[in-house]
């Protein structure tokens, strides 16, 4: 099991057939490129046949691109190194 940048969205579905809910739960794997080739083929095949899921994936893609373009917050935000003078 990989641990891509979108792992926090993953719900662990491993069924062979997709329904709309599976498309949603599999989106993180799809965009992290961690999906097995055979699995990805079914995912794409379903999108081709299902306008609803195709639309969802397009929206998801746009959201992922937006999130990845955001600057990452500093790992260690500024913290006071000393108590304010009136507390010492
Ligand atoms: Zn669908």
Give the distance, in angstroms, between the N- and C-terminal Cα atoms. 51 Å
Helix/strand-derived category reads mainly alpha
Count of DSSP H/I helices:
3
Beta-strand segment tally: 0
User: What's the order of the H and E elements?
Assistant: HHH
The small molecules bound here are: zinc ion
Q: Strand portion, in percent?
A: under 5%
Summed over residues and divided by their number, the pLDDT gives a mean of 76
Q: How is the quaternary structure best described?
A: single chain
Radius of gyration: 20 Å
Uncertain ranges = none
The backbone outline, from C-alpha atoms, is elongated
Largest sheet: none
Query: Helical proportion?
Result: 40-55%
Structure characterization notes:
This protein has 88 residues and is mostly helical. It has a domain at 19-71. Helices cover 51% and strands 0% of the residues. It contains three helices and no strands. The chain has helices at residues 20-32, 37-49, 51-69. The longest helix is centred in the last third of the chain and has 19 residues, at 51-69. The protein is elongated and about 70 Å long. The N and C termini lie far apart (51 Å). The mean pLDDT is 76. Bound molecules: zinc ion (ZN). Residues 20, 23, 46, 50, 52-53 line the site of zinc ion.
